[in-house]
Amino acid sequence: MLEKLPRPSIIVTPVEVIGFVSVEHVLGHIIFGMFLGIVTLRWRYVVLAGFFAILVDADRALYLLDILEIPRMAHSVPFAIFAAVVMMLVFGKKDLKLISISFAAIFIHISFDILSGRAGTFLLFAPFDNTKFYFPEITWIYFLLLSIAIVTAFTLIPKRIVLKQRNKEGLTER
């Protein structure tokens, strides 16, 4: 007869879970995210990028709910892809800026984590690979530039496609 093993649990207090929270931490992520949104030149995306950048740390709330999770999975590339797919399903495939911001927010978040000295080790490919990647402090700029490049690409490329279509159809504005 098979015995059912008790469910493993982690005993944590809310203080342990939210102990990382400080005004500097929260505002830092929001400001970095908003900086990312400025690339779009739209207030809506500036606010959403700030929100997405801090939302990445919401995975800490899973500890309070006694839900076991892969530690810090929200700081991974698969999670970034998942977030982008969710944005596509919820808001439609046409809003490429929103999709790119939801994807790039993970990298801008990692950038601030590295810069602030709170983290330097990440499971970038969790849950598929549990290899921990360590990034020295100087690498925050690479994650920042990667984030900006992603959003810039998805902001400028659609405009160029529309302009090319208008030129082909002879609908250029004078």
Q: Which descriptors would you attach to this protein?
A:
globular, two-stranded antiparallel sheet, 2% strand, 7 helices
Brief write-up:
Helix content is 60%, strand content 2%. Strands 1-2 form a two-stranded antiparallel sheet.
Radius of gyration: 19 Å
Question: What is the count of structural domains?
Answer: 1
The amount of beta strand, in percent, is under 5%
Order of helices and strands: HHHHHHEEH
Q: What separation lies between the terminal Cα atoms?
A: 82 Å
Structural class: mainly alpha
Q: Helicity range of the residues?
A: 55-70%
Shape: globular
What does the main sheet amount to? Answer: 2 strands, antiparallel
Model regions low in confidence, pLDDT < 50 over at least 5 residues: 1-12
Strand order of the largest sheet: 1-2
**Mean pLDDT across residues:** 81
Count of individual helical segments: 7
How many distinct beta strands?
2
Detailed description of the structure:
The protein is mainly alpha-helical. It is built from seven helices and two strands; from the N terminus they run ααααααββα. Helix 2 (23-38) crosses helix 3, helix 5 (77-91) runs antiparallel to helix 6 and helix 6 (96-116) packs antiparallel against helix 7 (140-169).
